[in-house]
Amino acid sequence: MTNTKKPLLNDAFVVIIFAAAILAMPIWLDPIGGNYPDLLQKFAIYGIFAIGFNILFGLTGYLSFGHAAFLGVGSYAAVWSFKLLTMNVLPAVVFGVLFAGILAAIIGFLSLRRTGIYFSILTLAFAQMSYNLAYSVLTPITNGETGLQLARSDPRILDSLFSDGSVGAGLPSTDLFGETMSGYPGFYFCAVLLIICFYISLRIFRSPFGLMLKGIKSNQNRMKYTGLNTRPYMLTAFIISGMYAGLAGSLLAVTDPLAGAERMQWTASGEVVLMTILGGAGTLVGPMLGAGLIKYFENIFSSFDDNVLTQAFSFLPDSVVEFVVPVVGLFVGSGWHLTLGLLFMIIVIFLPGGLVEGFRRIVNYFRSGGKTKPQSVEAHNQAGE
Amino acid sequence: MDAIFIQILNGLDKGAAYALIALGLTLVFGTLGIVNFAHGALFMLGAFCAVTFQKLVTISVKVRDEGVTAFVAYKEQPYLETWFGDTGRIIIDYSVPLSILLAIPFMLLVGYVMERGLIKHFYKRPHAEQILVTFGLAIVIQEIIKAYFGANPIPQPAPEILAGSANVGAWVGLGNNLVYPWWRLIYLCFSGLIIFSVFAFLQFTTYGMVVRAGMRDRETVGLLGINIERRFTIVFAIAAVVAGVAGVMYTPILPPDYHLGMDFLVLSFVVVVVGGMGSLGGAVLAGFLLGIVQSFASMNEVKEIFPGIDQIILYLVAVVILLVLPRGLMGRAGVMDD
Amino acid sequence: MGDLVLHLENINKSFGGLSALSDVNLHVEEGTTHAIIGPNGAGKSTLLNVCIGRLKPDTGAVTFGGEVLTGKQPHEIAQLGVARVFQTPEIFQEMTLIENVMIPALSHRDGAFRLNAAELLSRQGELRDEAEHILEDVGLKDMMRTEAGSLSRGDKRRLELGMCLILRPRLLLLDEPTAGMARHDTNQTIELLKKIKSRGMTKVIIEHDMHVVFSLADKVSVLARGQIIAGGDPQSVREDPKVKEAYLGGAN
């Protein structure tokens, strides 16, 4: 916003670098063992989720603990689109975003009547209601604990119009006009959407609308006394953010056509908060960074078990190995959540601005020749990108 | 009439647990201004004090089984029984109530360490960061418990004499069909006692007076030259103990597992906001009220009319109360009104 | 004299039985600077809060330029052209000064509800010039890239004044604009307020410092124990025995 010198060019540059980095992930993640389609898809999907969450939390400071509900609704809507209409992913994505947006409008309209912790509790309560209902009364729609799955007998009205009706062996797979949406094509589909989402988020950050949201975060009273009706702004941010979550949810279904209620649990909401905080709330690339790191480490760490560890430490004397393996074992494998919790605490305690903030501090430290000084906003923006 | 009476009783014991957790939550919020998402984990830690204590007292040795005469058989016998005979057996039988003796010092210590080591640094930080850091801590505690005790619920028996049910129907003249487990009655009385002690402590001791004054206006109390911070540490430790003993006593009702804390935490927060952030009376009232409401909502007659209502009733009540009464049932003005 | 622009009619406000304002009538003329003075706890800040919609009066009505303000939302009142400088500056602490001034400009026009950055670019230059101009007026231009949170208290107040001025309000309410300032800063602020006086903006000032009051005010009203006990031009108020007793006399 204050970056007056050719901001659009700068922004275009940012988007291009971002797009290049995302699309080239299969290449640069290969050496560190992150190059397989399932994981890459998760990076892109949770990146979208976190970027969307950041539009709400990062810009306005309103901490929603119920975003998982939108993720879940997106998934259910997408799977129903596969079941009823077609295996083409475009309608699924559209429906996922649409339904999540509608739910966000309702929840946002009510929750935004309160601020601070009351807002957090309200969103949490709505999300828990959705979760509990998905498990109980809504079983005809959600298929309860089993989760919503495809079946060979699904009508798929549009598909049956255009094909001879012969169903191949096994379940059909999701596709984009013939291209199957699993493996790398699935990743590239998600990646393209991620880049679009990133671009939209960047535009929101740079727009007067984004500036108003930052103003609301900084001092809501002052915004009111300058004549701004904050409610519609907040609601818009909430809905956009909910639609991002819905998109992420529908993409989860695109890459693996299955939807379960556990996606809506409040710990899932906590996860996206963590991703955003870890990377840096309110920064552009922070949430993507956080989502990527968490999904990467989750994948690496949880694959470790005692055997792997014993091998890894085999250079040590046996007695030391016997001691080290159980201790380290606490933090990996099924204990990965312990690491996650610790990471969470460390970030909030020492680096509330997230990794981007840490990076910024390092840059500033070197720029100022070892002295820390009050930083200008220009430095902020550039380091943040 | 019978049905209503029994539903109220059923609601009360769950309500008592909510009330005890919410009491500590709101005490910490009201005095220290901290939103503690790890409070449910303290409840869970208390429950696992009972588990640990039971494990300790039942450490066994192999002894000759005298009951089998045909051949030499061995059986596991707890050391306590070997050493102390019947006294040992009684200790084992009463392991749940006795484990309070372990829980109190342990929770005091946990509360002290937590406040000095972590919470203290978050007094001046935004609520969002408090929520996040304590949420992280809750995950850590929960995962440590999971690593040591496994993921499955561990049943804790109530003392044998209290294992049956009380014929409460007969006491109030409602016939003999109304029975209610003894242990739940004990839990009710116990929670009443704890709530009473906390209130008495705050009301009648000078210590409590300072704390209450601090709840109203921390700066002024600080200006009076009172070391309010040290008192806050103790308030936090007390809240931890309340949550801990509530957890200990709840184990015979619900076998504890590692995510017990999280399950109760969300509901307790709902209770706290319904009661009004920072209001002790509100927390207790809302705790029992929501327990009863939940119990009624899970009656089959109600579920037939509103399917699924039992699943969402607490959240629904919370949403309605928050939207209609922004400060909850008994919240004071000026608390958390941003 | 000009037309009456702000009317307060029979305003009553009490907090839990404690009466803060009782039957307050106040009439402010267009283009004048109207000072409200009175001892601590006289209800001065409550009066301003009623004007901007932060508090609702128990009875009575506030009208501004023919519109009834009572019952309107704060942002609606602000849209009508009422701006306020608070006792503790309400600014955007973690943003730069230039952003602090630009945000009100954008929000006031309510034209900020747009996501189109290209359109912003064409307007940004114009808005930015205006914001820089305002910062120059309040003497903060050379610091426009610093974060507002790092300013001194006096500078924060000046910044807040700038944030109000860019709204081009018809009525500016100032709550003790010089409280806690050193004499030098106070004089600077007086000069600044005199400068904007020439722009024909109506101002209501709450002030303790008599030096400030008598160098700025066209009209003075004296508030004591929730009631207006005297009013008129500064000279006559200064000599009013009731005022001396309630306020000036008490201070000496």
Within the largest sheet of chain C, what's the order of strands? 6-7-8-3-9-10
The Rg value of chain C, from CA coordinates, equals: 19 Å
For the CA atoms, what is the radius of gyration of chain B? Answer: 22 Å
Shape of chain B: globular
Describe this structure in words.
The complex is a heterotrimer of chains A (385), B (338) and C (252). Helices cover 70% and strands 2% of the residues of chain A. Chain A has 385 residues and is an all-alpha fold. Chain A has a domain of 259 residues: ABC transporter involved in vitamin B12 uptake, BtuC (Orthogonal Bundle). The two termini of chain A are 13 Å apart. By secondary structure, chain B is mainly α. Chain B has one domain. Chain B is globular. The relative contact order of chain B is 0.19. By secondary structure, chain C is of the alpha/beta class. Chain C has nine helices and ten strands. A six-stranded mixed sheet of chain C has the order 6-7-8-3-9-10, sandwiched between helices. A four-stranded antiparallel sheet of chain C has the order 2-1-4-5, covered by helices on one side. In chain C, α3 crosses α4. Chains in contact: A-B, A-C. Chains A and B meet through α6, α13 and α17 of A and α6, α12 and α15 of B.
Please summarize what this structure is.
The complex is a heterotrimer of chains A (385), B (338) and C (252). With 338 residues, chain B is mainly alpha-helical.
List the helices and strands and how they pair.
The complex is a heterotrimer of chains A (385), B (338) and C (252).
Chain A: H1 7-23, H2 25-28, H3 37-60, H4 68-84, H5 89-111, H6 116-135, H7 139-142, E1 148-149, H8 157-162, E2 175-176, E3 179-180, H9 183-206, H10 208-218, H11 220-225, H12 230-255, E4 258-259, H13 266-279, H14 286-303, H15 306-312, H16 318-329, H17 336-350, H18 354-367, H19 377-383
Helix pairs in contact in A: 1-9, 3-9, 3-12, 3-13, 3-14, 4-5, 4-12, 5-6, 5-12, 9-10, 9-12, 10-12, 13-14, 13-18
Chain B: H1 2-32, H2 39-57, E1 60-64, E2 74-78, H3 79-84, H4 86-93, H5 95-117, H6 127-149, E3 165-166, H7 168-171, E4 180-181, H8 182-204, H9 206-216, H10 218-223, H11 228-250, H12 260-275, H13 280-297, H14 300-305, H15 309-324
Antiparallel strand pairs in B: 1-2, 3-4
Chain C: E1 4-15, E2 18-29, E3 33-37, H1 44-52, E4 59-64, E5 67-68, H2 74-79, E6 82-85, H3 97-108, H4 117-137, H5 153-165, E7 171-175, H6 183-197, E8 202-206, H7 210-216, E9 219-224, E10 227-232, H8 234-239, H9 241-251
Parallel strand pairs in C: 3-8, 3-9, 6-7, 7-8
Antiparallel strand pairs in C: 1-2, 1-4, 4-5, 9-10
Helix pairs in contact in C: 3-4, 3-5
